[in-house]
């Protein structure tokens, strides 16, 4: 479900406030206390366990699968005849059965994990890189730039707000439709969607940091504003951005699957990807509903893992919850 633009902005601004808190009264660093909270949080443990399994499957799984993901072994053996409604289900040799082209479904699901992970990470990095660049310039300009800096901040943030006002999936579909269906298109489209989120977060975080005593002390000592922004304010403003990157990975995986399902992803079905597998299974739901259920469950569980860990990190870094 997509948040309304106003609520989305409020949530991002609230998360940006996290960076305004550093060490507590006992001298314990924010990150050290946050890690302690994460280790005691059941949701964080479950999320981390899910992601560990997912990453291991994505990295190691393709080398251990019993069949090549493009091997139409079921057609060769004559056991799969999708045109006649015959697609065998799970067996001792094929744990999840065959797909409509006679390929081993388990092997394709495992290999598809790597493709899904790569696309999710790359798209998040695209959004993170551009968003940090825009948000960093806007935040430094608003916090340290004076009158002209505020003008630069206004221009950048009005563009960001326009992007943020559009539903994320609609924006992704529009970008993908303009560029044409391909794997690169999906990564760019999903990356563009997350740009305004990272930009607004970092900008708010840097403005909060610009009012802290160490910035005033650096300015009094004659340190250049550009050095203050890059060497001091920016590193101390990244906590909420890191949290959001974890949450964005969850939405990126879902949006990548959605674009592939709509036919805007990689058109080559020989390369397994969970969203494309889900799309290919639609016309065979009456024969083999498992072909749609398996990738759908994989997408849901993986997104759940990123969401649990991201929300746990957000709570661990929230100054109102610190004791």
TrEMBL record:
Keywords: Cell membrane, Membrane, Transmembrane, Transmembrane helix, Transport. Pfam families: BPD_transp_1, OppC_N. CDD domains: TM_PBP2. The keyword Transport applies. Its main location: membrane. Residues 113-310 form the ABC transmembrane type-1 domain. This is ABC transporter permease. The chain crosses the membrane at residues 42-65, 117-143, 155-177, 183-202, 241-264, 292-313. InterPro entries: BP-dependent_transpt_permease, MetI-like, MetI-like_sf, OppC_N. Belongs to the binding-protein-dependent transport system permease family.
